[in-house]
Each structure stands twice: as structure tokens, then as C-alpha cells.
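Protein modeling request. Please complete all fields; requests missing the sequence field cannot be processed.
Requester role: graduate student
Desired output: 3D structure, C-alpha cell encoding
Chains: 1
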Amino acid sequence: MSAEPTVDSLRRTKLVCTIGPATASRARELVDAGMDVARINFSHGSPAARALGSGRVRRAADAAGRPVALLADLSGPKIRLGEFDGGSATLEAGEHFALRSGAPGHGDRHGATVSYPRLVADVRPGDAILLADGAAQLEVTAVEDVVHTEVIRGGTVRSRQGVSIPSERVTTPALTRKDRSDVPRVLDLGADFVAQSFVRSASDVLQLRALLGEGGPPVIAKIETRSAIDDFDAILDVADAVMIARGDMGVELPYEEVPIIQKQLVRRALDRGIPSIVATQMLESMLVSPRPTRAEASDVANAVFDGADAIMLSGETAVGSFPILAAEAAVRIIRLCEDHGREMLAGGASAPAAGDAGALSYAAVALARADPEVAAIACYTRSGRTARLLSALRPPVPIHAYSPDPRVVAGLALVHGVVPRTCVPPDDTSARLGLMAWLMTESNAVRSGAAVVLVASTAAPGTGPNMLEVHRVAR
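Delivered output (475 residues):
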């Protein structure tokens, strides 16, 4: 069993960091900075590079003595630019820019290739096209053998960055041929989560789940299209978590609507007890700057106050010049918000989950809120469900979740307020409360004399919790 964090080190909102060229050999530094989940982006890099990065994350987590989950992010029907001469190009407003489907050659400031063979068939004059999550904006002026556009807003774009067209224009299946070929590689890596890009409906998630097979890793549905927003409640029925991916969402919605949609989706996920991640351009300026802007600090803070389970850094840690500083900056902002902005933090789910397990979880959180001497809630869980039920209620104290299943422990690394730990299972179910009492007493997670609410089940594996006890830590 790994070492517990100290009371002062606890942080509720989790941090997802993307592994890329800037951090492929710096996994331990990211773990030390506070990374809870490592994202492996299947849109970039070779299988060998992804396997190498994943292995380094696993070893770094083991060395640090705490769980770090591995998130494999499938490419999905993402349209990408080809290669540019020199790796990038700066587009100027008012200039012409041509998009060519699958044509050979490198791009420049006048045009580039794209990875989507049906681009000519699927776009129309007047359509807006965003490059690189909005770094540049184009408007289609004519469609011939190439797509002619005018640069409406200039900016610098790099090789292999995204091309966003309205989702209703995209006719590619939600699971592309590349996604299907990547799924075995995801399973070989032992990923703890799989993120599905450009989800348009609940049926897309079900297709991926079927492809992963029984016992496959949990699915995170990336919400970045208008159709996904419209079908959000149905997606929550079938997904294990959701990611509010705001980059491509900007082509589907006016940018001024994105903050409102973010708050609404995070709240609806929280009410359903589904973990949420807020992603894209959280600390974008730290690609080239050692400090975030004030607006970016406020953006991270708002995600914390909205009640998101996690925030995600993308290019900041994948290709940025200051990847470790970016992770440290995110953690500093999160800690300050949680420590000094308690009155602004989102409340828990509007109602407890149905059934005995939901009622018992609600009672445990009520005890923690009513008694100022309660320093933590501890639960024994074989599936992770009890910890997720407790988390959705957003108790004022951390949740220490003990499980004998390392996969469950890794999966809980994403869940708000949960400190997951592996433990040896007791000989019989009646000993679970005693085991947790001993674990909490032996650790330095809570001070001596503090009270801990213990939650467990004396029933067979797979059943919900049925026992609650207040334990006083004495050393």
C-alpha cells in the first residue's frame, strides 16, 4: 500500500496533463507537480512513443507512491492540417487560404492539405472554419477541386493542428478506421480511461463500449459538438465521464455562449454523479510564457467554482516551453480557490442517488457537514461506485477510498475529492470497517483525535454500502 498524502497536501480538483515531446522524459516532474491523470493523445506520435510515455508515467507514479491514471484519447473524426514548411505558418486577415484534401506537398501561408477526403463535398460557401482551436478563422468563399477561403482572423498555425467545420457537415463515422485500429493498442497500454472525440450522440459511446469489450476501460465522452450538447442527458446515461472540450465547441457555438454552456454541462453532470473535465486553452499563454495571464487564472478558477472534477492541460504540457511550470500554476490556482473561495464552490448533486447506497452516502456526507471534528470520510469499495456517490455530494472533507483492485484505484484518480489507495482485502466482509479504521489511524492523512466517517458493506461483493460508523483516530 502506498503512502498517504498529508493533510496539508490534499487537493480536491484533479489535474489532467497531456504527455508530448515536452514531457515525454519528464513524467516524474509532472507527477511531483500534481498530475493526477496522464493523457496520451492518439492524434500525435507513434505507437512506440506512446508506449514509452505510458511506461514512464507508470514508473513515475510507482516511484511517487500515488496513483496516476492513464487516459488514452482517441483521434475521432478530427480533421487535421498537413505539414507546413518550417512547421508553421502565420495567416494574415484578408488573404486567401486554400484547403486541399489529401494533396501532396507542404503548406504555407497561402494554403495547406487537410486529412479529410470529403472536405470538398461537405462544406459550403459561407461556412466558418477554425484552425488550431480558433488560432485562425476562415470563411469558405468557393468550393471547386479545393476549398477557397478568406482569412477572417489571422494567426499562427502549426503542422497537424485541428481544422474545425460545423459538425452537421461531417459525414465521417464517429469511430474512424484509425480509432478501431487504435483500440487494441489502447488495451495493450492498460489505459484506465478512453476518451472518445467528437461524440455526437449516446449511440456513438455505445459503439465504442462494444468495441472495448466487457471489462474494458471507462469511456469519457468529449463534448465538443452542438449535437452532443443537444443529446447530453442521453450521453450521461451511457458515459462514465464527460470532457467539456471547448476548442472545437467554438465552431458550433458563438464564443460568448461557451462559458454559459460550460457551467450548465458541468452542473448537469454533477447532478447525475458523472465526473467532468474542463479542457482546452486553460493556460494557453504558457506555451511560450512562464506565467499565465490573469484571465487564464480566472478561467481555471471558474472551472473549480463550477464544480468540475478536473481541469486538463493540452499543449501547455505536451509541446509548451514551460510544461512543469504550467502544471504547478494550475495546482496553485486550484489550491487557492479551494482554500480561500469555499463560499463560491459549487454545491453537490441536487439530490442523493436513488437506493440504499445513495441514502447511506448522503448520511455520511451529512455527518461530515454537521460535525466540525470530522476530518475525512473513508470507504471500502470494490467497484469505485461508493466513492463516486460520495464525491457527487461534494462533502467538505476528503474521501479516502480503499480498494483491493488497482484498476479501481487508478480510475478514482479522476474523481473530485477522492484520495484513492490500494489495500489488501480483509478475510471477511465484517472486517472492512476495522480495516479502514486501522488504515486511517496508521496513515498521516488526518490528525490524531479527529473523527472519520467510515462507510462499507458487510454484504457480498458488488452490493452497495450498508454500514456507517464514526471512528476517532488515536495514535
